[in-house]
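Reviewer 2 asked us to include a model.

Predict the structure of this chain.
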Amino acid sequence: MELLDANLELKEIQKLQGHTDRVWSLAWNPATAAADVPSVFASCSGDKTVRIWEESPSTRSWDCKAVLEETHTRTVRSCAWSPSGKLLATASFDATTAIWENVGGDFECVSTLEGHENEVKSVSWNASGSLLATCGRDKTVWIWEVMPGNEFDCIQVLQGHTQDVKMVQWHPTMDMLFSCSYDNTVKVWWSEDADGDWSCVQTLGESNNGHSSTVWSLAFNAKGDKLVTCSDDLSLKIWEADIIRMQSGDGYAPWNHMCTLSGYHDRTVFSVHWSRDGIIASGAADDAVRLFVESKDGSMNGPTYQLLLKKEKAHDMDVNSVQWFPGEKRLLASASDDGTIKIWELASLA
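Predicted model (C-alpha cells):
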C-alpha cells in the first residue's frame, strides 16, 4: 500500500521522564532491532547524564535501566552505539568523548578520548566499528582508530570547516565521513586507500544548491545512495550519489542536489532521520514532528518529496532529535528541550 494513500497517524506510545534538563540526542542500540530481543536506546542530556532505556516485553513500555553519571562534567550532546551494540560513545561539552561498555548489564566507562579544545558536539561509528569520528566547536573533525583493549588512537584531525561543527556521520556502508557545520556547509571526507590520508573531496555549500544557514543534521536512506540535510534556513535538502560506482572501487562519485523541501517548517530544523522503509522524519524548533515521503508521481526533474503528516505540539519545546527504530516496527523516538523523550508509532487510523 502506498504510504501517501494510507490513513496514518503518529500515535504516542509513551512519554519518558527522568532527565532533569533538555534531552539533546537519542540512539537506538542496533543489536536490539531483532523481533525477539527487547529494544534498547540511549538518551543524553544537559543534566550531564546518559540514560539507557529498555523495552519490557510484557508491558511493551520502556523503563530506565541505567543512568550513566559522574563521568561527564558538562552537557552530554551526542551518543552513538557501535555496530555490535556492545559499546556506547558519548560526546560532551566537557571536551571529552567517553566510551562505555556493557559488562553484564552494568555500563562501565572504559575509555576517555581527549583532544578537542572545547565542546564535543557529535560522535559517530563507521559501519564496521573500526573507526570513530568526533567533531566540535573547535571547528575540527577527529578520526579515531579503534584498537584492541578499548584503546582509541587519533589517526587524523580534519580541518576545513570555518565554524563550529554540529554533527559527524559515517556513510552506512562505506568509509566516507560527512560533517555539517555552523559555516552552512556539509563536507565529505574520503580516503583513497585504507591507510591513506583523509581529505575533503566535496563541500555542499550555498554555491551548489546547499543551505544558506547552519546545517544541523544529516541522515542517509537505507541503501546509502541518498542523503538528507536540515538547516537553520528552514529547509530539508535531498542529495544523491552513484553509490555503485564508489562501492566498486572506481573512486569518489560526487553528491548532487536532487530537491529542496521548503515551506513546511517555519522554525529551525534540528534533526532529520530516514527510516528503513523510506520515511523522513524531522524535528524542529516549532515543537512539531513531520514525516515526508517520496511522491510516486515523480516529475521530469526527478523525484519529489511531500509531507506525509505533521504532529503539532509533539513536545512542549524544541524537538532536538528524531530517531527511527532500526527494526521492523515503525517506531520513532523524539527528544526535546522539555526534558522528555516520546516513543511514537506510525499506525493506520482505526
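Residues 3-348 form a domain with the Methylamine Dehydrogenase; Chain H fold (CATH 2.130.10.10). The radius of gyration is 19 Å. We have added this to the supplementary material.
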